[in-house]
Amino acid sequence: MNNQYLLKRLVTMGIVLFGVSLLTYVMIFVTPGDPARTILTQQMGGQTPSQEAVEQFRVSEGLDDPFTVQYVRWMSDVLQGDLGYSYYSDQPVTDAIAQRLPNTITLAVASGIVAIAISVPAGIASAVNPGSRIDYTAQFGALVGVSMPNFWLGYLLIIVCSLWLDVFPVAGVGGLEHLVLPAVTLGSGMAAIISRLVRTAMLDVLDAAYIRTARSKGLREQIVIYKHALQNALVPVVTIIGLQLSYVLNGAVVVEVVFQRPGLGTLLVDAIFARDYPIVQGVTLLIGVIFVLTNFAVDLTYNQLDPRIDLGGELM
Amino acid sequence: MIHQLEAPSLVHPLGTDQLGRDVLTRLLHGSRLSLGIAVIVTTVRLVIGTAVGLVAGYAGGWIDEALMRLVDTLLAFPGIVLALVIAGILGPSLVNVMLALAVVGWASYARLVRSSVLSLREREFVTAARLLGRSRTHVTVRHLIPNIAAPVVVLATLDIGGVILGISGLSFLGLGAQPPTPEWGTMLASGRTYIRQAWWLVNAPGVCIMITVLGFNILGDCLRDRLSPAQSNQIEKL
Amino acid sequence: MTDKLLRVEELYTRFDTDRGTVHAVDGASFTVDRGEIVGVLGESGSGKSVTARSICRLEEPGKIGNGTIMFDGTDLTTASKSTLRQIRGNEISMVFQDPTETLNPVFPVGEQIAEAVRIHEANSRQRLLDFLGVPLFRDQSAWADARDRAVELMDQMDIPNPESRLSAFPHEFSGGLRQRAVLAIALASDPKLLIADEPTTALDTTTQADILQRLRSLRDERDVGILLISHDLGVVAQTCDRVVVLYGGQVMEAGPVNEVLTAPEHPYTRMLLECSVRNSTPGERVQSVSGTPSDPIGSYEACPFADRCRHATTACRERYIPTTELDSEHRLACLEAPLPADDASAHRQDALTPDGGKQDDST
């Protein structure tokens, strides 16, 4: 691994993380409304605070300080793990997030499993028989998959599987049975994107000379495909699976609302409608940071899969 | 009130909603809205993104560096989540959702245009034009824009589907169009209350969104296949 | 003559493309026996690589339309997939052109050689999980043996420090080492027939000589039959016993190397010889073949070379060209043969005049 590249990549990541935090802070900073008044109203149990009390609160909390001072203060709090308190429940934002995060992670992992389980075999089947009926079916399925709004797919599954067939519960969290429909909803859209990519990558690889070598050795076709071709095709596929996190987080918001699952998505949506800005800020920052770190991790995984990439960024 | 929640029939092919309104009529009416908004949002994204990409690719240096870090930052957020937050802060309305989606979505255009400009800049006809003493504006308008138009249009076609999904998704969450506007996502959201009695209320707008998005995706795929493979790879990566 | 190791007869391989059917191999016949090196000579596009691949039935997406490929008593054109696989694993090995591309970049070289060893030895059934290396399913002792054998093979191929290179990846090898590794893979199965498709084209001259020397010693020491595909007259001349000159997917001339390359009877062979640098006297311009190979779309009902041939008559363009046997070894497909003996120099003279065709100094 090339240290210089790693360093360069770390610096760029630092800049983007800084951008993410700045953007998150600015968005809330420019929000209409007076945070001092909002917080005091909340603390006084709904009574309108006096003007002096508001002024005093502003000074004591440093809300009159210039933007940079406030941002630096916020950032140093954040770095110490303090994301502030919810306007409405006095609960630390970190606690609120910690409560909800496991549900979202479970959903993300489950839908990832669904997506991979559908897309990799479908993509391979397509690529191995290009132009066949299987290929066309898989490709059209993928096109429908990316075009389907997941909030509708969610309700469709609820109507068919819960209301008509009564196989799975309508909503909420609990055992595995609560996870199936949300995971399928979120996973199928992802599967559509991944299977197209698996197909392209496999088609590329199956054309390569080393595949001909593998066949000329007398290897079984199955081993040629699953060992020699798939491992090469995985490089771009893993990247895309990593980048699908964006899709998962986008989708999780909607899917959690549809299935009424308490997770990061519902936390964010509820906070937005309640104008609970510390929560909004915390969740947004977390999502941005998770996303940047994932991309970085995906970059590093490259090296593990393709020994030619020494993270100098260049293939030999 | 009469004709509430009627199942699909010859008179009402897609049934009626909780207020007795014909679902098909509302969907057709809503199509104008959804398509119009999607085209506007995509155009705004395209214009901002192309402008930023041209400037970054052509100016280079710290301007390029700063713009690309901004692009990286925007792309560091899942689009819908960021749009959700922005629209939420601005307050629920269709215009705010459009604004939010436009603001978060131009970054991929900027990236595509910039990389095209960087590769075009080295090409001979651009060098020749510059050696002839043509101004930057001249080179940009006469030589760069025509050459990046094709991939940008393909990206836009593929993007429209995403924008439609974004608008209806945010409307579904309650941030975009408000009832009684016949926006597809809003209709789906109001239909979910009656999911047990009237399954068509959720499914009709859902099918509508899917078919529209599917159409744009097929169109985009076809356009992309007409382009050179090199360019189609570039778009695929975004 | 049934004892030949490989007998290809009237082989047709075609590709169905959007623009029509391409007849890449168009009725080629030739044989390879044990302990001899047969060269297949031709320009790019002459169908030589497709011929090589067709023998192993690796011609995808092409289709074999007709003909027989008799290998050691088995007709490969009708053989089942599993028979083909066994033959590929045990009796016919292939070496391809570019060693950068022919080794799988994501597996260590040792693993790839050991795999070939295991395919040869574990002839019963190749289990997917065993080959994937899934810990519990991998037959560790068999793979350890295979790796020992791989070290042996690498050593035989003069790859320095074979033990330490076992776990190296292809990109860590030089071009020459890679091609030796490819040869090690090919020899892992102790094949009867080796098909080498331009094995030295991507290599520099010294490495090229080394690889060719190895091929010759394989022939002499192990009695392997070798089909050597090349566009390079020099390579064929110094390595092969017999040569098959291919053009437009058809055999133009075939026979012992010293006959065909010293006294060519076919206008095409003569043309190739004139273009060779080795044949030109110092100070003389190197000739280039005038024209380019015709687009091999559509089956030939005539001589494929007619359009570039200065001896061509209307008869050449109108009917199928029968193969004539000059003697039991030497045969050619030309209506105008035998050509006047001084034709070679006459042609050379002709080419130097402005009308004699394009000249390319860089060739």
From TrEMBL, chain A:
All residue ranges annotated as the ABC transmembrane type-1 domain in the record: 101-302
Pfam families per UniProt: BPD_transp_1 (PF00528), BPD_transp_1_N (PF19300)
What residue ranges carry the coiled-coil annotation? none
Q: Which UniProt keywords apply?
A: Cell membrane, Ion transport, Membrane, Nickel, Transmembrane, Transmembrane helix, Transport
Q: Which InterPro entries match?
A: BPD_transp_1_N, MetI-like, MetI-like_sf, Opp2B
Which PROSITE patterns would you find in this protein's record? ABC_TM1
A GO cellular component entry from the record = plasma membrane
What does the record say about its membrane topology?
Multi-pass membrane protein
Q: Which GO terms describe its molecular function?
A: nickel cation transmembrane transporter activity
Q: Which family does it belong to?
A: Belongs to the binding-protein-dependent transport system permease family. OppBC subfamily.
Which PANTHER family does this entry report, sorted A to Z?
Answer: DIPEPTIDE TRANSPORT SYSTEM PERMEASE PROTEIN DPPB-RELATED
Under which name does UniProt file this protein? ABC-type dipeptide/oligopeptide/nickel transport system, permease component
Its source organism is Natronococcus jeotgali DSM 18795
Automatic annotation (TrEMBL), chain C:
Protein topology in the membrane: Peripheral membrane protein
Q: SMART domains attached here?
A: AAA
Alphabetically list the UniProt keywords.
ATP-binding, Cell membrane, Ion transport, Membrane, Nucleotide-binding, Translocase, Transport
UniProt-annotated stretches for the region Disordered: 343-363
Instruction: Give an example GO biological process.
Output: peptide transport
- GO cellular component annotations, sorted alphabetically? plasma membrane
Q: Which residues form the AAA+ ATPase domain?
A: 34-258
Domain of life where this protein originates = Archaea
Q: What is this enzyme's catalytic activity, as reactions? A: Ni(2+)(out) + ATP + H2O = Ni(2+)(in) + ADP + phosphate + H(+)
Record EC number: 7.2.2.11
TM helices/strands, residue ranges: none
EC class of the enzyme, as a word: translocase
Can you name one GO molecular function term for this protein?
Answer: ATP binding
Where it sits in the cell: the answer is: Cell membrane
Pfam families assigned to the protein according to its UniProt record, in alphabetical order = ABC_tran, oligo_HPY
The record's SUPFAM superfamilies line, in alphabetical order, gives: P-loop containing nucleoside triphosphate hydrolases
| InterPro entries (UniProt xref) | AAA+_ATPase, ABC_Ni/Peptide_Import, ABC_transporter-like_ATP-bd, Oligopep_ABC_C, P-loop_NTPase
Quaternary structure, per UniProt, is: The complex is composed of two ATP-binding proteins (NikD and NikE), two transmembrane proteins (NikB and NikC) and a solute-binding protein (NikA).
Put simply, this protein is called Nickel import system ATP-binding protein NikD
